[in-house]
Amino acid sequence: MHFSAGHRMQKKNRIILALDVTSRADALRVVEAAKDYVDAVKIGWPLILAVGPDIISEIAKNKDVICDMKIADIPNTNRLIVEQAMKRGASAVIAHGFTGDDSVKACVDAAKGQVFVLTEMSHPGARQFTAPVADKLAALAKSAGARGIVAPATRPERIAELRKIIGNLEIISPGVGAQGGKASDALKAGADYIIVGRAIYEAPDPKAAAKALADEVKRSI
Ligand code: 3DU
């Protein structure tokens, strides 16, 4: 399952666990519970700030880690951030595209292509700024050589539209469960992977929740 930059996350369960817990014990417990049902673990600021960046390497020993720092800076700073994430064992990173092509290309170069670019975000406020330019952000992801885009499971019709722009790039899709989106809708609309956080880590039985989602995935592809 583990791969270094340049390889591909194994597309088996088509679920990425968003590990937004704030203790090391919770992080390891949830990964252990969900490990057979997820293809990768997405780690962002909540866990990194709570526990420290060593958690990236620790989880990367057993699972592909996508570092979700929502990188959005000038090219040089983007490069420095991505280099640190990759050095710690991240398999891919998530970056904003609104910073422009030079900033996105800096991420792509530093991650050897393993970058997912945010397009329209999944929350209601996304309608203000990211939704109106989402098609352009998707086109930028493609022209910059990114691996894929992040697109909203809360609006599956947008996944289908963005798919037309990016061709065979990958789509990873948050918004399933706690934000109201459905795994089957996102996958049928063209998502390669769903990203799921609270519906797994806040469930009374995270293993059962992950398994139920994996079963839903199997039924819908
Ligand atoms: O709503 P959940 O708990 O399943 O978590 C969703 C995760 O995906 C969370 O880490 C959030 O930061 C991330 N994400 C979005 O929810 C929406 C986006 O547009 C991009 C990332």
The assigned structural class equals: alpha/beta
Report the helical percentage: 40-55%
Distance from N terminus to C terminus (CA atoms, Å) equals 21 Å
Low-confidence stretches: 1-7
Could you tell me which ligands this complex binds, including any ions or cofactors? Answer: ligand 3DU
DSSP helix count?
10
Strand segment tally: 8
Averaged pLDDT, please? Answer: 95
State Rg.
16 Å
Description:
The protein is of the alpha/beta class. The chain has ten helices and eight strands. Strands 1-2-3-4-5-6-7-8 form an eight-stranded parallel beta barrel, surrounded by seven helices. Helix 4 links the parallel strand 3 and strand 4. The protein is globular. The two termini are 21 Å apart. The N terminus is likely disordered. Ligand 3DU binds next to strand 8 and helix 9.
Write the layout of secondary structure elements.
Elements: E1 15-18, H1 24-34, E2 40-44, H2 45-51, H3 54-60, E3 64-71, H4 75-87, E4 92-95, H5 101-110, E5 115-118, H6 134-144, E6 148-150, H7 156-166, E7 170-174, H8 183-188, E8 193-196, H9 198-201, H10 206-220
Parallel strand pairs: 1-2, 1-8, 2-3, 3-4, 4-5, 5-6, 6-7, 7-8
Helix pairs in contact: 1-10, 4-5, 5-6, 6-7
This protein binds ligand 3DU.
Ligand 3DU binds at residues 18, 20, 44, 118, 121-122, 150, 152, 174-175, 177-179, 195-199.
